[in-house]
Amino acid sequence: MDFFNAISVKEALQIITKLANDYKMDTEVVSLVDAIDRIVAMNYRAPVNLPQFNRSTVDGYAVMIQDVVDASETSPMPLKLVHEVIMGEVVTDVLKEGQTAYVPTGGMLPEKTEGMVMIEYTKQLDEETILIKKPVQEGENISYTGDDLSLGEVYIKAGKRITAYDLGLFASMGVGQIEVYKKPVFSIISTGDEIIGIDEEQSFGQIREINSYALGGLIKQLGGEVNKRKIVKDDFGKIRSALEETLVLSDIILVSGGSSVGKKDYTRQVIESFDNSQIWVHGIAIKPGRPTIFGQVEGKLVVGLPGHPASALVTFSLFVKRYFLTIQKSRQEVVHIKAMLTGDVYAAQGRETYQMVRLSRKADIWEALPLYGKSGMMTLLAKASGYIKIPFEKEKFEKGTFVDVYLLKDLTL
Ligand SMILES: Nc1nc2c(c(=O)[nH]1)N[C@H]1C(S)=C(S)[C@@H](COP(=O)(O)OP(=O)(O)OC[C@H]3O[C@@H](n4cnc5c(N)ncnc54)[C@H](O)[C@@H]3O)O[C@H]1N2
Ligand code: MOO
């Protein structure tokens, strides 16, 4: 694995996806009220037709098309009222020529009903006679058995993140216990002699630990868990013990900092020092994030994230998120919108460049303001709405160009 011969983003994504497909993620059963945002671990099939019977979608009268074909306001058609359906009743009547039945919204239809006429277009003449003032089309105001879902049809697929709407769908199927993937568990080891915790006294030259908080936030939003966060000095032995300690506890271990090739960058060496280990990637042609490492120790993914916060967060969002979703057989697209650049942006030579931008709405278009800055700057990502991708064969995008902005978060304008 030659660090200076960095692989493309596409290749890196292929490798991480393959590793994820080979990982066995356990499942668990949760109750419906706790299932929001979890990822479904099996295909759910309809145990019944939905609706289970032909039903009316309006309050009105069940009719046959031929009986009312010439019906109008001025020449209404009299039909014989043979039944008044009650909600919940199992209707056994069969409509015959010249007959009608009253059916409330959601009520079961008599057999042979071809259309429902809303009550507004009818008039009760006497106890037995209803005047119908308009014709109907086949199936008008009717919801047929299985229209919504038919028996055996998959209504929620494995890998789907459960939304509030899905909770409603599960409820309609009478499913109160859902099989989901266990929440993937992360450990975050933040390395650096200069790194101190948020509660520590800061001396000149020291840097506050940022990455585990920001990464932890992303993990939580994704639906993962962080079970261990640790700050460790740039010391081979200490980083190794921290990694050893977290291995059994985690599905994914993030090591922030020390991913480059400096004298005190130990992440790669630490991974390689374990018997059952492998380095799959060291160096990706991306800016920010070039020195990223994908390794494995005892089958667990160990990612060496570059220490610079913007680099760590961008590489997490691209690669670790892909792994996180794929081990749960899930796939998500990053939403992008077209926006007009308000300044020139330049690519880093030989790297796919992820340029942060801030979106604002101008009349009927979105404008993308490039946020210039180095990967070490935390304000960059806090201000950014998203990023644009400059492919590595391209030198720049000029002001005024319409580009795709990939959203990093909900838009707060
Ligand atoms: N000779 C080369 N040097 C570097 C290269 C290269 O290709 N050849 N790549 C550069 C790039 S690009 C990046 S990105 C950095 C990443 O290096 P490391 O992963 O080894 O990161 P560190 O040196 O440990 O830290 C970089 C920077 O970030 C600060 N940092 C680290 N951890 C945290 C944290 N948890 N919270 C806040 N800030 C953190 C650290 O203090 C440093 O300032 O390598 C370049 N070098
Ligand atoms: O790849 Mo580095 O992340 O540009 O600063």
UniProtKB/TrEMBL annotation:
Molecular-function GO term, any one: molybdopterin molybdotransferase activity
CDD domains from the UniProt entry: MoeA (cd00887)
SMART domains per UniProt: MoCF_biosynth
Stored Gene3D superfamilies: MoaB/Mog-like domain, MoeA, C-terminal, domain IV, Molybdopterin biosynthesis moea protein, domain 2, Molybdopterin biosynthesis moea protein, domain 3
Annotated MoaB/Mog domain residues: 187-326
Recorded superkingdom: Bacteria
Cofactor: Mg(2+)
Catalytic reaction annotation: adenylyl-molybdopterin + molybdate = Mo-molybdopterin + AMP + H(+)
Keyword Glycosyltransferase recorded: no
Keywords: Magnesium, Metal-binding, Molybdenum, Molybdenum cofactor biosynthesis, Transferase
Pfam families: MoCF_biosynth, MoeA_C, MoeA_N
Enzyme class: transferase
Keyword 4Fe-4S: no
Pathway: Cofactor biosynthesis; molybdopterin biosynthesis
NCBIfam families reported for this sequence: Glp_gephyrin, molyb_syn
Family assignment from sequence similarity: Belongs to the MoeA family.
Role of this protein: Catalyzes the insertion of molybdate into adenylated molybdopterin with the concomitant release of AMP. May be involved in the biosynthesis of molybdopterin.
Identification of the protein by name: Molybdopterin molybdenumtransferase
Species annotation: Petrocella atlantisensis
